[in-house]
Amino acid sequence: MTEKMCMVVSEGTFDKAMMPLIMGTTAAATGTEVHVFYTFFGTKLVTKKANPKLPGMWRLFTGMFVKKMKGVGIGNYNEFMKQAMDLGVNFYACSTTMNLMGVKESDLLPGVKVLGAASFLKLASESKTTLFIG
Amino acid sequence: MEKDATLDAKGLMCPMPIVQLAKKIKELKSGQVLELLADDVGAKEDVPAWCSRTGHQLVGTEEEGKLLRFYIRIK
Fold first, then answer.
1. For chain A, which domains are there?
2. CA quadruple A11, A13, A19, A25: dihedral positive or negative?
């Protein structure tokens, strides 16, 4: 059976946005089935309007980070997200948080599924690795 | 070392050498040898780790200053 890996992302800043994509694309490139669950402030990362910035004062340097990442082949957040999807990484939005934050299913990026905690816990219990990014 | 194809991942940083490697492998047949060029310091450990996880065989590694050459035999 294919090995599984799960991640939970609870923050929506640029650093928290990139980490699951770096880990997720690498795991997918290794043949692992990857599931990433976005909750609370992470939820906006899987919407069409996603444009994450670095936290606090670092916010001003986000553009510089993106430029550097482009230089080493990673590209911007949306390009990287698409690449992860092409590699088969599965993305989920937490159904409760969507309600709390006013995110509608039509706001989500194509391919992102809505999931509840019970379904995520089932995936996590089947996974060898589960990471919390928040 | 004899090779059937080369993937130039110079200038790319983690995770891109591995992501490109996984893509390239699909174009090759079992038994063929792929040469991977990389200069990301992380690749030194990442490529052997990827090989041991995926079952492709790392048959050689060469270092030329910052440049790393990996030879991978497709399983």
1. 4-133 (3.40.1260.10)
2. positive
